[in-house]
Amino acid sequence: MSTRLRGFSVLALASSLLGLAFAVYSTIDYADHLDRRVHDLHCSLVPGAMPTSDSEVCRAAMYSPYSALFKDALWGGVPISLFAIGAFAFFAAFALYLVIRGERSAGYVRQLFFALASTPALVSLLMLTLSLTKLGGLCKTCLGIYISSALLLLAGVAVAMAPAPGRASFSTMGLLGRVVGVMALLGVATVVPGLAYAAAAPDHTPYLKSCGTLKVPAEPKHELMSLRGSDPRREALFLEDPLCPTCRAFHARLIGEELIDLLDAKVVLFPLDSECNWMLAEPLHPGACRLSRALLCAPDGRAALDWAFEEQEALAQAGRQSDKALDQLVGARFGQSVLDCAGSKKAKARLNAHLHFAADNNVPVSTPQLFLGTSRVCDEDTDIGLRFTLTRLAPELFR
Length: 399
Prior knowledge:
Blueprint: H1 2-32, H2 56-63, E1 68-69, E2 78-79, H3 80-101, H4 107-135, H5 140-161, H6 172-200, E3 225-228, E4 234-240, H7 245-256, E5 263-269, H8 288-297, H9 301-310, H10 312-321, H11 323-334, H12 336-342, H13 345-360, E6 369-372, E7 375-377, H14 386-393
Parallel strand pairs: 4-5
Antiparallel strand pairs: 1-2, 3-5, 4-6, 6-7
Helix pairs in contact: 1-3, 1-5, 3-4, 3-6, 4-5, 8-9, 8-12, 8-13, 10-11, 11-12
């Protein structure tokens, strides 16, 4: 029985170290972005795999409201992966103790290990549910943490079920004190990395207004798309491409942060498609011009834009395939009248007015972009720093 118990303890140790590795890589990715630049991410089920730019799901998870705590008080917040680092380090030490002690470890210690080992699994279950229901995908690094938590729980069950030695010689109060002490150690180990990170994080406040302003204000002649929320508290302006994945993620963050309905927003459709956008030599998102004109012709602009983001993958694939393939999807959603309108001179002129508005303001040829009033919000402040930035530049959104 000693060999089996030690084997389960080794599994617990390995699970803890695996979870610790995934949590460390996730935290490194987060901390790298504190320099306000975009970096490749570790997005693999293989610990130590090289960072990659092909990591859209992991980036969406990192930018989401669920990736960190205290985002309104600290730029980017305190990543929850830091708490995972502390917890898995604690369980690695606890499991190592069980490996060394073997059958000499008291029964209550093994049962306590199982009880505490259930906490990472419960948190992982919550985060898995949020990933599937709110983000629509699974970050591989996060999945690695979830798998590690499940293995740790299974190891905890096996360790707890192993026969215990004779009764401990200390009193009930002594037993209670030991249990409370171990639980307190878990709490301290979990919280300390987050506190250290928060203390060392730089202050981004001086950078928030450093990315320029609109030189030419939006006027009725530009015929911008309205995205007025149900409880508008602040005027805003977006530059978006309906086939841009980062625009879709930005839109999802505004919804996730429950901010979209608090904005009186105008949308400048800025397709990164050389078919209509003379600022590009070749199309980055083929079909974006055609789709943008259709959105301008739709009876409800906000609903049309929501649909484009929801069906973005299918629309992008159709755009790469042919105009006919894209028209079939648009026609199935909006009908022939919108297709006819999208091909008209009037729709082309309206989209051209959007592009001229962008050109007249010398904005970067990129999407998404956010303006509050006439002030441009820096790109990095629209992702992991979104909530921190808006609490300072648009505090009325949080009252």
